[in-house]
Design goal:
It is rod-shaped, with a radius of gyration of 26 Å. The protein has about 170 residues and is mainly β. Helix content is about 0%, strand content about 50%. The strands form 3 sheets. Strands 7, 8, 9, 11 and 12 form a 5-stranded antiparallel beta sheet that branches. A 4-stranded antiparallel beta sheet has the order 2-1-3-4, with no helix packed on it. Strands 5-6-10 form a 3-stranded antiparallel beta sheet, with no helix packed on it. The chain contains no helices and 12 strands.
Length: about 170
């Protein structure tokens, strides 16, 4: 008969011990996204040698949800998304675009810090297709990317047409 079951866990940032518990399960809460945890379970009994077992896993970073792009003007677009946990996840925005002359330009990645869930691209090129990728990041770990795209149009004329003949 097991008299005592102890659980402890470590991460790259902290060490905690739950101490002795009874039963066959224990719930750990307030774990941080993007960290690796190693759990050690020790079973001890009065007439049995102690038995240890360990398990290691990472806390999953969920991808952003409902990623959309809205063209505000012919030169500006807003990318927005939902954070499935509403906490602690920064987002990396990367994009490529193909201009009217079939040239491909690649932007450097930009990071949007939590709790922001939108990003505005300014100075867009007319007649260009933009492919946007949004990736969650926390403690150096990344989620799967979610993508969206849009094509810019030319600016509208600033006034009424001149010399129009019907």
């Amino acid at each position: 008969m097991v008299q005592q079951l102890g659980i402890g866990y470590t991460t790259t940032q902290l060490i905690r011990s739950a101490g002795p518990i009874s039963g066959t399960s224990y719930t750990l809460d307030n774990l941080l996204l993007g960290l690796e945890y190693t759990f050690l379970v020790v079973a001890e009994g009065s007439q049995l040698p102690s038995v240890e077992t360990a398990a290691t896993f990472d806390i999953y970073i969920p991808p952003p949800e409902n990623v959309t792009s809205i063209l505000q003007t012919h030169k500006n677009a807003t990318i927005s998304w939902e954070n499935p946990f509403n906490s602690g996840i920064d987002y990396v925005i990367s994009y490529t675009y193909q201009g009217p002359c079939s040239e491909v330009f690649i932007s450097s990645n930009d990071t949007v810090a939590a709790p922001m869930t939108h990003y505005t691209l300014m100075g867009l090129e007319e007649f260009s297709t933009y492919d946007i990728s949004v990736t969650g990041e926390s403690n150096g770990m990344y989620s799967d990317s979610v993508s969206t795209s849009f094509t810019t149009m030319p600016s509208a004329p600033s006034g009424a047409p001149e010399n129009l003949k019907i």
